[in-house]
Amino acid sequence: MEAIKCINCGEDIQHNFCSHCGQRTSVKRITLREGWNDFWARIYGFDGMFPRTLRDLTLRPGKVAKLFIEGNRARYYGPVGYFFLMITLFLLALSLMGVDFIDFTKNVSKYGLMPERGKGQEVAFEMLTQFISDNVKVIAFAIIPLQAVGARYIFFRKSNYNFIEHMVLPFYVQGHMYWTNILSVVYLKFAHSFAINIVVAFFAYAYFPFAYTTLFTDQSKWKVFLKGLGVFVVGQLLMSILVVIIGFIALKINPELYELIKPSNNK
Length: 267
Description:
The model has no long low-confidence stretch (mean pLDDT about 80). The chain is globular and about 65 Å long. The termini are far apart. Helix 3 (about 80-95) packs parallel to helix 7 (about 170-175), helix 7 packs antiparallel against helix 9 (about 195-215) and helix 9 packs across helix 10 (about 220-255). It has one domain. The chain has a two-stranded antiparallel ribbon. The chain has 11 helices and 2 strands. The protein is mainly alpha-helical and about 270 residues long.
């Protein structure tokens, strides 16, 4: 086959794809059909990477993390990329379903998962949820290193994984759990109820430690499951402490916020 120049990097190409950058040799004009085909090629391309990632993260998430840590970068989506992809899909689901993020968050308290709030606290809560809505990716990211602290320095400190490697599984697991959030959005839209949040919470507490049982297979499954649950709880506790610290700083900077939450304004 006669070599041609790659339209992306300028290197010689003798096959269907450029060996330097991956650009296709044959590029068709932009049409609706071509755009659709390109979309599905990117989703299901790389030898079925996306569906394989979904399947294995559901059945054996620890295996996905282990292969990535060991250097296999072609079989699955990377943990950070998958994590942010799922957050993006969740936000897209909110937009497509016409569900406001703040309203979605407020629905949690209707099922006894948060205490009743006074008028001032309600205003402060709306300010908080607006801040979370504006910074959801950063806040979601923040808990990952906290969970890695629990794994690396408390529950799995004898493993050969370093701190960054202990972040791989939480990235995959936290990202994969956004499928349940997407399900919650759809259920809220059509059933006008957030009762399914109870199922979502149970799934989170079960799936997270289960993931560790498929990563550390040299120990008793129940022992690893309890350790994985410990990693989850430690991550939540550290996140709560971080939120409290940030809250104190916010109160110090903005005295008006204290006026909103003090008991005399929340009767």
